[in-house]
Design goal:
By secondary structure, the chain is mostly helical. The chain has one domain. The protein has one helix at residues 11-34. The protein starts with 10 loop residues before the first helix and ends with a helix. The model has no long low-confidence stretch (mean pLDDT 65).
Amino acid sequence: PNNTPIPPTPPELDAKPLDKVKEPKERRKGRELER
């Protein structure tokens, strides 16, 4: 069980870029809604 191979792209690393891309998009939508 301790010999499990590490995935090429862990969920944490994959979630970080997604969060960064989602954050700016959400902020843009919030500004548009405020206007």
